[in-house]
Automatic annotation (TrEMBL):
The keyword Nucleus applies. This is Rrn7/TAF1B N-terminal cyclin domain-containing protein. One of its GO terms (cellular component) is RNA polymerase I core factor complex. Residues 23-155 form the Rrn7/TAF1B N-terminal cyclin domain. Belongs to the RRN7/TAF1B family. Keywords: DNA-binding, Metal-binding, Nucleus, Transcription, Transcription regulation, Zinc, Zinc-finger. PANTHER family: TATA BOX-BINDING PROTEIN-ASSOCIATED FACTOR RNA POLYMERASE I SUBUNIT B (PTHR31576:SF2). It is found in: Nucleus, Nucleolus. GO terms for molecular function: RNA polymerase I core promoter sequence-specific DNA binding; zinc ion binding.
Length: 159
């Protein structure tokens, strides 16, 4: 039996794990596509991992307080939005109590802000730069737009 107080933490960890693993899979597929279709060195597949891990660590999404911080920020944003609406309506009533926020949506939005999908293209470009491959950022952007790199389909499915 689960402790009721642990359920939000488990849900947040589950959402975070799947989101980060999804981005890792996209990066892996992009690297494999670069190797197979554009002649980039297979070394890119080994170099992009440490770069990705350092970036994820810098976003602090795996810290213990991440889930509660995301909820607090969402509460603060909703209060600001309600205050603006009340000022626009010129009502003299007090602010209503904050409505219950769906936690999974809040955590997913927080992850999307800290780890946007477009960062996958940046990671691949940075790995190409580190191994001194003659690939420009414009090349990666063009290939992603043409569908040669798995980005647009992943972007649409993650929205």
């Amino acid at each position: 039996m689960y402790d009721v107080s642990e359920l939000p933490d488990r849900l947040a960890a589950h959402i975070r794990e799947y989101y980060v693993q999804g981005l890792q899979t996209i990066i892996q597929l992009q690297c494999e596509s670069l190797v197979e279709n554009f002649g980039v060195s297979p070394l890119i597949c080994r170099i992009v991992g440490p770069i990705w891990l350092r970036f994820v660590a810098s976003t602090r999404v795996f810290e213990r307080e991440w889930a509660s911080e995301a909820i607090l920020l969402a509460d603060a944003r909703s209060l600001k939005e309600k205050a603006k609406k009340l000022k626009l309506k010129k009502e003299s009533s007090t602010l209503p109590a904050p409505e219950k926020i769906e936690m999974s949506r809040v955590w997913t939005d927080s992850l999307k802000r800290r780890l946007p999908l477009r960062i996958t293209l940046a990671m691949v470009f940075l790995a190409c730069y580190v191994i001194r491959e003659p690939v420009l950022a414009t090349d990666i952007s063009t290939w992603a737009g043409q569908g040669s790199l798995p980005y647009l389909t992943a972007f649409l499915s993650m929205q």
